[in-house]
């Protein structure tokens, strides 16, 4: 049983808590507007670098031009029941759609994405050995290609490059 004085009220509305540090909330409309300094966005000074041939490695430029060459790709249809008719491939924010079962000209850099696309399937087995009663966990990993495709490449280095990319994946 609680002891409450006869003249006091137990209702919180009638007896609010008074604290000296309790202040009204501040709204962003109540704050003074301050001046924002103007920024000079054209003041680049020495940040501008002129691209001339002496600054770049020739092998790097050769690789860039090699990756921009066009190749003809034939994507085979997937094994699932409602396989997509187009596949999406992107490099550095540039996305292209490749039609399935139609020879399509694409840049080699998109072909590299197709060749390296290999999801890893992971299966685990756990149990106990009969003799030692030791618990074991086995992890089995397997890689498989996402896309089945064939390539017609006019560059004589193209086949060796594609084989190297497939081995690295």
Structural write-up:
This protein has helices at residues 58-67, 108-116, 158-168; strands spanning 70-75, 86-91, 94-99, 104-107, 120-128, 135-143, 149-152. It is an alpha+beta fold and 169 residues long. The longest helix has 11 residues, at 158-168. The radius of gyration is 34 Å and the shape is extended. The mean pLDDT is 81.
Comma- or semicolon-separated keywords:
3 helices, alpha+beta, 3-stranded antiparallel β-sheet
Main beta sheet: 3 strands, antiparallel
The fraction of residues assigned to DSSP E strands is 25-35%
Structural class: alpha+beta
In which order are the strands of the major sheet placed?
Answer: 4-1-7
What spatial form do the alpha-carbon principal axes imply? extended
Assembly state of the chains shown: single chain
Please specify the SSE layout and strand pairing.
Blueprint: H1 58-67, E1 70-75, E2 86-91, E3 94-99, E4 104-107, H2 108-116, E5 120-128, E6 135-143, E7 149-152, H3 158-168
Structure described in brief:
The protein has 169 residues and is an alpha+beta fold.
């Amino acid at each position: 049983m609680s002891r409450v004085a006869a003249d006091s009220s137990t209702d919180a509305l009638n007896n609010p808590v008074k604290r000296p540090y309790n202040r009204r909330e501040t709204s962003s409309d109540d704050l003074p507007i301050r001046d924002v300094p103007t920024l000079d966005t054209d003041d680049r000074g020495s940040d501008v670098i002129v691209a001339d041939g002496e600054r770049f490695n020739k092998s790097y430029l050769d690789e860039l031009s090699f990756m921009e060459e066009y190749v003809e790709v034939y994507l085979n249809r997937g094994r699932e029941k409602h396989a997509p008719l187009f596949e999406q491939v992107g490099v550095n924010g540039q996305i292209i759609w490749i039609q399935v079962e139609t020879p399509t000209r694409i840049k080699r850099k998109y072909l590299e994405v197709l060749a390296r696309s290999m999801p890893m399937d992971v299966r685990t087995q756990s149990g106990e050995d009969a003799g030692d009663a030791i618990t074991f966990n086995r992890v089995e990993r397997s890689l498989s290609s996402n896309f089945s495709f064939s390539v017609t490449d006019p560059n004589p280095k193209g086949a060796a490059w594609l084989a190297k990319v497939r081995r690295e994946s």
